[in-house]
Amino acid sequence: MSKYLGLIKVSADEASRMIRDGARSRRDFFELVVRESGGTVEGYWLTNVGDWNIVCVVDMVDETPIGGAVAALQRRVAGLTEAERWIELADVDDVAEWTSRANSP
To answer: Which positions of the chain have pLDDT values less than 70?
Structure first.
């Protein structure tokens, strides 16, 4: 599994649903979507600054770039997001192990 930091700008329709249904309801829906894709949500926060409305951390099964692109398009078509940015995170201990292997004779 790979861990990702997600930055999400919700669509106007999704913002309306958040106000109508409540932020917890929309978070629960997000967690369901991630679970159905084989992942788990480690954290989910709303933000009031910058271009992003939601910041989240998710663990996802390793996915091809094409699969990720299709999933992003599906979220946009469903009216959930206006923009997204996903940053793959690397554990410091894992990086240290790989660099020590690369530096060993």
So the answer is: 63-70
Beta bridge pairs of residue 3:
59, 89
Residue 76: half-sphere exposure toward Cβ, Cα within 13 Å: 11
Tokens encoding 9: 């700008």
- Check if the beta carbon of residue 6 is closer than 8 Å to that of residue 27: no
How far CA 53 is from CA of 22, 32, 62, 64, 66, in Å, comes to 15, 19, 25, 26, 25
Close Cβ partners of 97 (under 8 Å, ≥ 6 residues apart): none
CA distance 22 to 5: 23
Q: How is residue 97 written in tokens?
A: 């192990």
